Amino acid sequence: MRAIVPHLDRCTGCRMCEMACSLHHEGLVNREWARIRVHRKGIEHYVPVVCNQGTSCDKECAQVCPVDCIKDVNGHAIEVIREECIGCGECVEACPYNAIHMRGDVAFKCNLCDGDPTCIKFCSLEAITFEEGIPDEFDKAKDATEVVR
Amino acid sequence: MKGFAGEVLRVDLTAQAVEKSPLPESLVRTYLGGTGLAARFLYDNVPPNADALDPSNILILAPGLFNGFPVPTGGKVLFCAKSPLTGTIAESVMGARLGSELKRAGYDLLLVSGMSGSPRYILIDDEDVEIRDAGDLWGKDTRATAEEIRRTEGDAVVACIGIAGENLVRYANIDCEDRQSGRGGLGAVMGSKKLKAIAVKGTGDLVPHDADKLMELCLRYYERMIESPAFNDDTKYGTGEFLEWMNSEKGTFPTRNWREGVFDDREKIDPYHWAPLYTRRNNACLACPKPCGRIFGIDEGKYAGLRIDGIEYELLYSLGGLCGMGDIEELARANELCDLHGLDGISAGAAVAFAMDLFQDGILTREDTGGLDLEFGNPEAELKLIEMIARREGLGDVLAEGVKRASERIGKGAEDYAVHVKGMEPPAYDVRGIKGMALAFMTSSRGACHLRSCAYALELTGKFWKFEGVDRFSTEGKGVEIKELEDMMTVYDVLGVCKFSRGYFLADGFVDVLASVTGLEFSESEILRLGERINNLKHMFNLREGLTRDDFRLPKRLLTLPIPEGASKGHVVTEREMNKMLDDYFEARGWSKEGLPSEEKTKDLNLA
Predict the structure, then answer these.
(1) What ipTM was predicted for this assembly?
(2) pTM for the whole thing?
């Protein structure tokens, strides 16, 4: 399964991915609505954080969802079915990568824009790439996220 | 109004009061945002002839209109106030996410007035605005201050001053995540108000007029930028990429306090030498897909662990060539000191170079320098003097006033060594060999500046935008040229777009993106007219503060000392050339010989 893979050493902190993501999905710009988020770790580096679509985790979000509304609908990404979400927040707690979010009373996460991710189109130095998941890269991102959380 | 946040936030530090009001709709169409709104509010709210360090001066934080949207390179934000260095309007643009964060918190503009009795910082957390005690932060460097506030307040974007701002160094800057609002002493204005920092957390939505159209345009300009031949050079070598060209091809790299136009010891400060050795990664401004910013790191030796954002072209000049100093690691350390203490690296380097020049000619002696061997090219002396400036110790206290005031205090002919316009130390363009740029130094509303016009690019390459065949040694046509460029570049500062995008992103693109963000329809000529209006307003502010034609003069050195060697050898700006270009510029502006706008002009621009 393909996923958006972060490369910490290349991220410049421009946040085009965050802005383009929320503009694409919500028609507005707000980091709080972005599925991909960039964290700043001092002057040392930036960490792009986004769902690995189960390539590097046990799909904890889907496992804990009490109404089973987090699933792979069309074969390329794990999605939150917004109409069915009850807003309990269990998935947000369970995600080891901090890659699923709540706003108001719905959870939302990266669905790879139906197979053609918008964020990738705006990453000029390829700090995120769309490819077969590379667990090492995800682990690095996870470790770095812990530091900035 | 789509694209806008909708409110103006005012914080009065004397009364410790916060006030919010709607952004007046009457100002939207005429000033839009960024430098436009900043200039309007400065003109209307600062009492005439207020001292820049008086509580009545107002510090304005103005996001560019495109801040927060994924418009490529549209993340520029600025601070504005009356300048303690020049007495004119000061504004300084930086590439930080402070602007988008302020907009998302709900404000198109922040105005800070008054003065607190003890150190404070302002916390803006969406609609909650608090003035908090900063007693423990006073005396801390910029990085430690931001870290400390983020420890307490969580994921806030922090703009702050270092000790230079606290000590009212007249060219202290404001730092935000290792980027600086550098020029004109805005950090000293913050210091005078006892304001250590502004921390912003914004979580609101920014809603564009037409999201689909905006996405299409963002992608179009993004692709244009990353496909351009400059992409590779920008991201690999940054702003210093053309340093060698400025030296060997053009002979216009100001060296040893403008005694020379070519730096002989430049090999090690050329990014083609140091970038492969020291650059750790690219570091972008908000929304920039072609970052010229890079993190410079040293891992061994006496500066092991040093990390700075840079080193930018301007500081390779001011802390390098201008001081005759060609050691890249020492230069990096000087840059780091400026960043941590919150000093404008251009003015700081220029002040050190000025003192070195006086030392060489015996006007300053070891007695004056506190025992420092202030020779050109001596890094220990340079670093020590930067510290002394930030702390206002000894000679540093004099130099903290800027070269103009310092030269008056030192006397003994020191005025002839002080290179400035309106009190502002110039950037890295030896204008004796770039005549249009000399005029741009003269006319810039904030004192000697390369960015109000960006004329250097046109002058040095001969073509840009609608201009072609421009001769850098000629004074013909320069009045119209600089007027048109200034009006155009002002639009960049209204929208918050980087001027390094001028190769791909001009008025035609701006009006399209503006319409998709706000729904406001502008023609190209209307948007340039808006630039002209703002430049006239800034000039009217300066006139009100006592500016006269004399303040447009170049310093004596640039009028009398020809560049001695290199591709611009023998060139100087004569008194006659200076006056001719200024006459032409005033005429192009519709101003009198004394620089006064006619009644027709002000009426025509809705400024009467």
Answers:
(1) 0.95
(2) 0.97
